[in-house]
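ZP: hey, is the CA2 complex queued? I don't see it on the tracker
AM: it wasn't, my bad. submitting now with these inputs:
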Amino acid sequence: MDAPHGRGIATGRAMGLICIFNGPNLNLLGTREPEIYGRDTLDDVETLCAEKCRELGHAMRFMQSNSEGDLVTWIQEARGKADAIVINPAAYTHTSIAIRDALSAFEGPFIEVHISNVHARESFRHHSYVSGIASAVIAGCGIAGYGYAIDTVARLLGHD
Ligand code: CA2
């Protein structure tokens, strides 16, 4: 239900910005490996996130890149602007100290999301460079995990 009891800008409450960052190959979502990632596309993920942010009265920035440097730059740019980050670093989860270092410099909470249950897959997906500094980690819930992450961010920010 939409803003029946004081949610969002209609009531004059300041909207916090949530940045949602997606790593390499997530632009292919819905085109291959539906048994692992489902049939939803990245556009569907963006729509889900936009609806959840609107419901909770947050502004949203949703981005995807196949480049590690883009992700590092966007995380740096979120400093002082975003209230929280939701990130699916995709394969960089398992390789990137640079993304971990950028996230450690972000002052707000961040949540790591994986569509699949990485722990039930190949052993190289069991280690994450970012989980140890994340406020929460969500894996194996499909694209619904992004919505759970936004709910969790709103609770952590005291905006739920
Ligand atoms: O489960 C997740 O969300 C992952 O972050 C997805 C990454 C994978 O490397 C991580 O281990 C777990 C892969 C994203 C690529 O997604 C594709 C989707 C369809 C076709 C090809 C790739």
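AM: back. The mean pLDDT is 91.
ZP: great, adding it to the tracker
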